[in-house]
């Protein structure tokens, strides 16, 4: 699949309109760094790579002080996102200290702490002017995405050449194009552990709740209780949801969500028909259903077979459950990272029930990150450190991917430190070794 996608993209050439150089050029000093690279399906490797150089006036070079694995990185790990190439540097959630600035950078200085959005926005196109940074028209040259979707998302860090081929942040250094636009300065009263997740998981989960229109009094269902789903549950409650039904099969995740007031849980490994159970609990159906899960874990034999035979890339099972579970004229929000095509999608129910089926899209981080930082994190209304289960060193990224994929030892969100990281903040996990974790799968 990767070879075919890369060949197609190479044949079509770059899509016109991109204003960003995505080629990796080494720093003239010859400095080296550690970085996590993709080597093939289920195969990643920490390698010694060149520190990147500034290539355009508005570039910033960042010393990474914190990075992490996102659940969507597992799609890359398993080779399910197209246009991956050997030695691509992965990672799209990271923060750090400004090390170098290009001559066109006006608002950042060397030594400043910043968090970086997972998307690369130009700051000038019609979407960027509305802070819809994930939809930037000018930073992704993927002709393959243009052909498949009709338009292109913004370029993303560390997420294959389908999103521009930009080296990612699971590394000790990163080049950030349009640094003034894509870096958010972090005040001294906010720790790295609280700031890091402004890069993706916090704006993404918030966007799902806001874009799907969760409002005071709504009954909300959340499918998938990884970090995005756990945050979505909390955002829904903060927006006034009267009740949340949280659905997963991992006991530790169900327990985490179930401890919250107004939250009931459903273990789908024990409940054969989730929509029927929800309609029993909520006669008439949910007001909103939020799909915060994954497309790469089919439940039924039918979809396991179709994926294995490459008859579909994604599975519609969760989406169909959401559609059945909402009331007539209810809303379904899709924030799970679907990639392409699925079979047996219940489009008839969407039409007949008048369901508002909303593709939330990749979250426009710039639209929300200042609000989340100032109105929720700094005020104490939302403390993102609840989801950090472990802290490891960058050297153990290979082992971490395998453990994260298996959900070993209750792993949830992991803070990955580099040689530039500050010590762990009070109340946050201390450094541990992945190999010392229990083999228990939760």
TrEMBL record:
Its cofactor is Zn(2+). CDD domains: FDH_like_1. Residues 57-188 form the Alcohol dehydrogenase-like N-terminal domain. The keyword Ribonucleoprotein does not apply. One of its GO terms (molecular function) is oxidoreductase activity. Transmembrane segments: none annotated. It comes from the Eukaryota. The keyword Glycoprotein does not apply. InterPro entries: ADH-like_C, ADH-like_N, ADH_Zn_CS, GroES-like_sf, NAD(P)-bd_dom_sf. Residues 227-293 form the Alcohol dehydrogenase-like C-terminal domain. Gene3D superfamilies: Medium-chain alcohol dehydrogenases, catalytic domain (3.90.180.10), NAD(P)-binding Rossmann-like Domain (3.40.50.720). Keywords: Metal-binding, Oxidoreductase, Zinc. Pfam families: ADH_N (PF08240), ADH_zinc_N (PF00107). Belongs to the zinc-containing alcohol dehydrogenase family. This is Glutathione-dependent formaldehyde dehydrogenase. It comes from Naganishia liquefaciens.
């Amino acid at each position: 699949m990767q070879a075919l996608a890369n060949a197609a993209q190479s044949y079509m050439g770059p899509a016109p309109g991109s204003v960003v150089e995505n080629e990796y050029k080494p720093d003239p000093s010859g400095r080296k760094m550690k970085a996590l690279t993709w080597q093939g399906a289920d195969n990643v490797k920490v390698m010694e790579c060149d520190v990147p150089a500034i290539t355009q006036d508005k570039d910033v070079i960042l010393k990474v002080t914190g990075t992490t694995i996102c659940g969507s990185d597992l799609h890359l790990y398993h080779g399910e996102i197209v246009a991956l190439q050997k030695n691509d540097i992965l990672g799209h959630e990271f923060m750090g200290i400004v090390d170098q600035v290009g001559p066109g950078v006006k608002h950042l200085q060397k030594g400043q702490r910043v968090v970086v959005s997972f998307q690369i926005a130009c700051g000038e196109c019609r979407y960027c002017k509305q802070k819809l940074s994930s939809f930037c028209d000018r930073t992704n040259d993927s002709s393959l995405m243009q052909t498949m979707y009709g338009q292109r998302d913004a370029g993303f860090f560390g997420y294959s050449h389908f999103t521009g081929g930009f080296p990612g942040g699971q590394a000790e250094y990163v080049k950030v194009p349009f640094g003034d636009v894509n870096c958010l300065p972090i005040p001294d009263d906010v720790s790295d552990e609280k700031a890091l997740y402004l890069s993706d998981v916090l704006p993404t989960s918030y966007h799902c709740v806001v874009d799907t229109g969760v409002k005071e009094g709504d009954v909300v269902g959340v499918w998938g209780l990884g970090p995005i789903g756990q945050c979505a549950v909390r955002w829904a409650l903060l927006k006034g949801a009267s009740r949340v039904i949280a659905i997963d099969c991992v006991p530790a995740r169900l327990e985490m969500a179930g401890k919250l007031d107004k939250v009931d849980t459903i273990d789908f490994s024990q409940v054969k028909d989730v929509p029927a159970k929800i309609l029993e609990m909520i006669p008439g159906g949910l007001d909103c259903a939020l799909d915060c899960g994954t497309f790469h874990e089919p439940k039924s034999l039918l979809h396991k077979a179709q994926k294995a035979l490459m008859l579909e890339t994604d599975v519609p099972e969760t989406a169909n459950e959401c559609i059945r579970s909402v009331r007539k004229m209810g809303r379904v929000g899709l924030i799970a990272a679907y990639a392409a095509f699925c079979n047996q999608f219940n489009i008839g129910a969407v039409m007949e029930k008048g369901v508002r089926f909303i593709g939330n899209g990749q979250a426009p981080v710039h639209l929300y990150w200042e609000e989340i930082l100032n109105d929720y994190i700094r005020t104490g209304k939302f403390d993102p450190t609840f989801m950090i289960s472990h802290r490891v060193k960058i050297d153990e990224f290979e082992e971490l991917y395998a453990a994260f994929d298996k959900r070993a030892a209750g792993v949830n969100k992991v803070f990955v430190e580099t040689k530039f990281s500050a010590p762990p903040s009070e109340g946050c996990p201390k450094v541990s070794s992945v190999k010392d974790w229990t083999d228990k799968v939760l």
